[in-house]
Structure formats: C-alpha cells, structure tokens
C-alpha cells in the first residue's frame, strides 16, 4: 500500500534525512513540518496514515502531539523518535497509543521496516472497516468469516464443491473451523433441506459406535430392548459428517469403507443389508498420511474420503483475519450478554494480532467472550482481554455472566468457564503434562483432552512457561 506520512521534527536536518531515506526506498507521499502546531493543523486537513514525530520539541512535545492525533483520528498510526531512550518514555508512548518508538540515531532499515509494518497494519484496518460496513449493509453475517487470500480460496472451494456429492476431507488444527466448513458445505448443497448428522468419532466409546452409526436390532446385545435406528439412517438423503475420523478403530474403518464404496451397511445383530444415500464429509486434526505409514489408518479409506481436500491454516498464518473475526465475536457476545459494546480499541486489536493462538479461532472467540463479560465501557480495551495467561484470575461472578440468561444457558456458560479455569490451573500444576493433570483431576486422559480442545487450551503453553522460569 502507498500511504501518506507526516514527519514532525524541530531539527530541519533530521526532517531532510528522513525524507531522503523514505523517498529513496518507497512511494509514500511525504509531508514534513518543523512546527508541531502547524503539523497538527496539516493533520486535521489531510488523511494521513502515519505520523512520525520527534519526542523532544520546544513548546509541544511528541507525547502531547500523539495525544491530540489519537483524539482526532485514533486509527492513524504514530511512530515516536527519541534520542532519550528511557523505558518510561517508551512505555508512556505505547500506552498512549503509539505504534512504536525508534531511538536516534537509527539505522535506515529500522525506520523502513517499521513504516512497512505500519502500512500493512493500516491496510488491514481499512479492509476491515470496509468489510464491517459491507456486512452491516447486508444485514446478514455469514458464519464463516475471513478476508485473507487463503480463506477466500477456501470459500471458493466450498462454493464449487458444495453442490456436488463429492466426499470432502477437512483438515486443520483444533479450533480452525473444520466443523463450520462442514456446515457451510451442507448448507450450500442440494441436500440442505435434509439433515446434516454429525458423528464425533472420539466422543463415542468404541463399543457403541457401530450401533450408533448403523443401528441395532432387538436382542443384538444385552440391553438392546428394541430395534434402534442408526445415525446413517437418520442422515439418509442428507449429509453425514464424520468428525475426528482419525480416531476410528480399524474394525470401524473397514465397515465405513463398505458404506462409502457400496452405500451398504448392516445394523448390529442383523443379516439384512441396508442402503443409504449419503454425502460424506470427514474431518481430522491428525496427519492421516503418517497414520497410514504407521498402519493405523487404512490407505484405501483415505483415498475414498480424500476426493476433495480442504486444509484450514492455523490462525497465526492468517493474522489479518483477527480484527474482522474479533468484531464478529464482539457482536455475538455483546448480544448474548446484553451489553452495549460497539468497538475494540486499537491497542486491544494490536494485542490480539500479536497473540500466538495455539487454540486458533476458538481461543480468539473465548478471549472476546471473556472480554465482553469484563468490559465496563462501550469499547473493548486491552485490559479487558486478559491476554497474559499469567493473569488467570478471570473467573467471573455469576451475576456478571449469567443472571439474565435462562437457567440452561446460564448453567452451560458457567460450566464452560469453570472448565477453562479449572483446566488451566491443573495444567499449571502438572507443568503441561496431560497424563499427570488427568491423574490429579481423577478423570480419563482422553476426556481431559477433549475438554482442553473445547476450551482452546494447549498444554504446550504451560510447558514453555516452565522453561522460561528455569532459564532465568
Ligand atoms: N472462519 C471462522 N469464522 C467465524 N467463526 C469461526 C471461524 N472458524 C472458526 N470459528 C469459530 O471457532 C470455533 C471453533 O470452530 P470449529 O468447532 O469449527 O473448529 P474445529 O476445527 O472443528 O475444532 P476441533 O478440531 O477442536 O473440533 C467455533 O465457535 C466457530 O464458530
Ligand atoms: Mg471440530
């Protein structure tokens, strides 16, 4: 992006030097001004993207100028130049909304790199503003959100494959949106008036998955009092979404292959072959190719399910989507918690963009939900987000979270928040060791794993922190 930059410094030599460096290497439009009062007037008249200002200037210092700029147009980025690189000034500048500060004398690359980063940030802010407007005008917020090239390609792929009956394999780490993609495919398919049946292959115990999927006949096993329809039959003429397919046992993989190849299956305890007309979508966060090499996943089944492949990248590889996702989650949770929060401060957005997000979009969603609960004004601030996981004391009160919800909704939300808080303290105790954490809690490791996934928690975060402590 080519932007417009205002440079303010009382030293004319410095102005000339900056102008030369920037104009030699970039196409940005530059305006220089030695008097900060006049600079502020220029700023009011023209749409600048970036202001680079010296800190120490007679009559008006850079911090004061920064404050005025942020009051007039908070979305404009400001870089402070300082010969006095004290930590206090830097902290003050960042707290007041500066994008960054640079100490003099500076290297040419440092200034050019920072400008480049600002322009990318500005481009993202503008794109997101435009998108928010477009979404508001459309009045309908599609469930899958993303503006990055990679997500646009995924949306295109979804619209191309949805109307067909091709089998789709969706891969990606936990919380990247696999289930949402499966729904989008079904909703845009010719089968949308029929059912989408989701089967979570991890959650259903191995002993019962066959009867859950294929049904059983009376007397097939102890406790089978009457015939029971399987999910395959429920999904007939619709879509069957097999989530976490990498967790299916070998025996079930074989039966599934038959269903995929011939459209045939048998209820448990029955000799009658049944037929099903299904569209299959499967998802996994395992690497199926290495599972095949280790003989845990059938290669023939893999080729059957992998006709169309959609791979969702982790959120850290599409950080430009963080603002638009955040705004949508803000809208959702402000509605749920009945709070009048309309905006997210730029420092909060910057804080979010710099997160690692091992739990991907789900983790971002959880952070925004928590932020909405704690926010006391009409703008979500950095402090509301509790981005530093050390500050784990965020367990909210019942009246903050749930007093206006129905009993069931309130109970579900409190349970979810309890899970998150409890698991974090467990993992902190076990230093990220999941087996040990499960032992402390007296629950199955697999169950803990599932709860961690739902809460968007990655055990590695707790291991890393321990290394840092040891390293000190
Ligand atoms: N592109 C997106 N736009 C809007 N919301 C999203 C997007 N991707 C994910 N989400 C939200 O993030 C959460 C997690 O998404 P989802 O359950 O689809 O992830 P997943 O990949 O199936 O995770 P897991 O492997 O843990 O089951 C959901 O609340 C979903 O609505
Ligand atoms: Mg899922």
Quick overview of this protein structure:
By secondary structure, the chain is an alpha/beta fold.
Reported CATH architecture of the largest domain: 3-Layer(aba) Sandwich
Q: What is the CA-based Rg, rounded? A: 27 Å
> How many discrete structural domains?
3
Query: What order do the strands of the largest sheet run in, or round the barrel if closed?
Result: 2-1-3-4-5
Quaternary assembly: single chain
Please bin the fraction of helical residues: 40-55%
Mean pLDDT, nearest integer?
85
Uncertain parts: 135-141, 390-394, 465-472
- Give the biggest beta sheet: 5 strands, parallel
What bound compounds does this protein have?
adenosine-5'-triphosphate, magnesium ion
End-to-end separation in angstroms reads: 42 Å
Principal-axes shape call: elongated
β-strand amount: 5-15%
Assigned CATH class of the largest domain: Alpha Beta
CATH level-4 homologous superfamily of the largest domain: P-loop containing nucleotide triphosphate hydrolases
Number of helices: 21
Structural class: alpha/beta
Number of strand segments:
14
The CATH topology of the largest domain turns out to be: Rossmann fold
Q: What is the topological layout?
A:
Layout (H helix, E strand, L loop, with lengths): L3 E5 L3 H14 L3 E5 L2 H10 L4 E5 L7 H11 L4 E6 L4 H9 L4 E4 L4 H31 L10 H13 L6 E5 L5 H10 L8 E5 L5 H9 L16 H4 L4 E5 L6 H13 L1 E3 L6 E3 L3 E6 L3 H6 L5 H7 L2 E5 L9 H15 L6 E2 L1 H8 L6 H15 L4 E2 L1 H4 L12 H4 L5 H24 L3 H8 L3 H11 L3 H13 L1
Parallel strand pairs: 1-2, 1-3, 3-4, 4-5, 6-11, 6-12, 7-8, 8-11, 13-14
Antiparallel strand pairs: 9-10
Helix pairs in contact: 2-3, 10-12, 13-15, 18-19, 18-20, 19-20
The structure holds adenosine-5'-triphosphate and magnesium ion.
The site of adenosine-5'-triphosphate has 17 residues, from α7 and α15.
